[in-house]
């Protein structure tokens, strides 16, 4: 999803920072593809749960390009797939702490400059599991539900400054680390459950993010945008 988003945003004229924690080769491949297509991109290593890494990344971006207009928080923070009966507090509390800590650190790193300039787009990846439970996904769904509400409060506070904050909530996405934890039969079942009969693609998520990153989305804030092929209709 991150690679698809980077390519789509670069294709729309954004200068893109591809953040990674331990996938430097893949990040550089994304950057090389964007550059070859005439775009501007750079890869920066930072663990978004580590304050020093986040501040160093923000400083590097500020020095290179003067600041951040759009933040897309798409980091996959590991979680246990387990029932409540087998769930430990370390698994649940650890996921909650890491999920919110990353969102907090990244938002704190970019929001003050956005406020000073009177413009910004904050976009966070959530999941349909934050509203509709599925067996084994209690840690992920609970942590993302907390993220959903965090983003609404950020949106409320920053709206007067011309800054939007929104959530993109895909159903199960094809070709990701999460689907890699599932059996092929389970992946097929999840795709068939949607009225459109398939899983969401990374490019479909990227195009939704691109709208929220654009100037045209300036009156859209505090929203949770599902991308699920009709699986849940709110």
TrEMBL record:
Keywords: Cell wall, Secreted
Pfam families: adh_short_C2
Principal location listed in the UniProt entry: secreted
Stated family: Belongs to the short-chain dehydrogenases/reductases (SDR) family.
Compartments (UniProt record): Secreted, Cell wall
Catalytic activity field: a (3R)-hydroxyacyl-[ACP] + NADP(+) = a 3-oxoacyl-[ACP] + NADPH + H(+)
Full protein name: 3-oxoacyl-[acyl-carrier-protein] reductase MabA
Lineage: Bacteria, Bacillati, Actinomycetota, Actinomycetes, Mycobacteriales
PANTHER family (UniProt xref): 3-OXOACYL-(ACYL-CARRIER-PROTEIN) REDUCTASE (PTHR42879), 3-OXOACYL-[ACYL-CARRIER-PROTEIN] REDUCTASE FABG (PTHR42879:SF2)
